[in-house]
Design goal:
This protein is of the alpha/beta class. The chain has one domain: Aldolase class I (TIM Barrel, Alpha-Beta Barrel), CATH 3.20.20. Helix content is 45%, strand content 12%. The strands form 3 sheets. Strands 4-11-10-9-8-7-6-5 form an 8-stranded parallel β-sheet. A two-stranded antiparallel sheet has the order 1-12. Strands 2-3 form a two-stranded antiparallel sheet. It starts with 8 loop residues before the first helix and ends with a strand. Its cofactor is FMN.
């Protein structure tokens, strides 16, 4: 039997206090996000379908992206207990300088399409938290404008080689003059990948106001208002931007890129050089022998070759091949701080995230990017504490493994 009674008013009062009202709509929206997946859900509601799919999608059947994310889900940690984890050091030396966190922001094209604050917002958040930011050749803000937006930040520049090498050399010289310390050459894009979502959505650059986009825009008036009341949306380094992304790539990028071009770039760039898009151990050895300071194991977020190798699975054999002769970075499918921890335990120097901060940008502009960093930082910290590690630099292969498929 339960002895029941009526509650006293004094007992109810603490339970009936309303939650404080947050006047700022962006803050109110972002408060509900506890994961990158939550930011993705908000981004999906707030942006036109073509814009969301451009960010979210991959090539062909999207197997490369699915497999990459599946690999991170196969990570199994080996925790140790009875250790003092009250404080955790998240810092990491990346390409010759200390980063406050063990990850950096990857290059993403056409960033102002996701949110009109664009690359300057992302770069300024990176500078504020003390991590590197990589500006894409396909960005919508110039090299100089990003440097001005984040003058105290550590800025990197990602380069696609044009058919016209003089244009590429000019970009490299501008990056050097603006204080960028690392150049990242992307080598996995001889031609554009078949991104079906973009084809189905009729995505063009800049977005065209067709009947389809008009109807979709009616459900996302804030996005269209921002687009139409800010500077025209164009690639900052391209004179001609008409057509789809794949058409631009095929028209402008050089499919004849070879190791000679890596040698040439090493000769004209005095800073750190990273080769992005490495997908096998033999190529790693070739570019390191040519003078690369780092390799980025990447299948371009699954946006180029479908059924490509899984970057997470390449970390250990790559590290075994090159040892300390260059740094191994990794990207693709990283959506949780535990993925970052796993990458470093497996042997990577650092991880790069792209979609994660883009979801934040779409969900809440600069504040959304900062929220993405906050979420990832909390997850990295908590994962380290739960496996009994007090510093990122102390992560070792014994702390994590990839479980077999099946």
């Amino acid at each position: 039997m339960v002895d029941r009674r009526l509650p006293r008013i004094s007992e109810l009062r603490p339970l009936l206090q309303p939650a404080p009202f947050v006047r700022d709509g962006v803050e109110r929206r972002l408060r509900r996000a506890a994961s990158i997946a939550d930011l993705r859900a908000i981004a999906r509601r707030r942006t036109p379908r073509a814009v969301f799919d451009y960010t979210d999608g991959a090539a062909d059947g999207e197997l490369s992206l699915s497999r990459a994310r599946g690999a991170w889900s196969r990570v199994e940690f080996s925790p140790t207990v009875l250790r003092d984890v009250s404080t955790v050091d998240l810092g990491r030396d990346i390409l010759g300088a200390r980063s406050a966190l063990p990850f950096a922001f990857a290059p993403t094209g056409f960033t102002r399409m996701m949110g009109t604050e664009g690359e300057p917002a992302v770069a300024s958040v990176a500078a504020e938290v003390g991590i590197p930011y990589t500006l894409s050749t396909m960005g919508t803000t110039t090299i100089e404008e990003v440097a001005a937006a984040a003058p105290t930040g550590r800025n990197w520049f990602q380069l696609y080689l044009w058919r016209d090498r003089s244009f590429a050399k000019d970009l490299v010289q501008r990056a050097q003059a603006a204080g960028y310390d690392t150049l990242m050459l992307t080598v996995d894009t001889p031609v554009g990948g078949n991104r079906r979502r973009d084809v189905h959505n009729g995505l063009s650059i800049p977005p065209a106001l067709t009947l389809r986009t008009f109807l979709d825009g009616a459900r996302h008036p804030n996005w269209w208002f921002d687009l139409l009341t800010t500077a025209p949306l164009t690639f900052a380094t391209l004179e001609s931007t008409e057509g789809t992304v794949a058409e631009l790539i095929n028209r402008v990028f050089d499919p004849a890129l070879t190791m000679d071009d890596v040698d040439w770039l090493r000769g004209v760039w005095p800073g750190k050089l990273v080769i992005k898009g490495i997908q096998n151990v033999a190529d790693t050895r070739r570019v390191v022998d040519a003078g690369a300071d780092g390799v980025l194991l990447s299948n371009h977020g699954g946006r180029q070759l479908d059924r490509a190798p899984v970057p997470a699975e390449l970390i250990e054999p790559t590290v075994q091949e090159i040892g300390d002769s260059a740094e191994v970075l990794v990207d693709t499918g990283i959506m949780h701080g535990a993925d970052v921890v796993a990458a470093i335990a497996l042997g990577a120097r650092a991880a790069l995230v792209g979609r994660a901060y883009l979801y934040g940008l779409m969900a809440g502009g600069r504040a959304g990017v900062a929220k993405a960093v906050e979420i990832l930082t909390g997850e990295v910290t908590r994962t380290l504490q739960l496996i009994g590690v007090t510093a990122v630099d102390d992560l070792r292969p014994e702390h994590a493994r990839l479980r077999p498929n099946g």
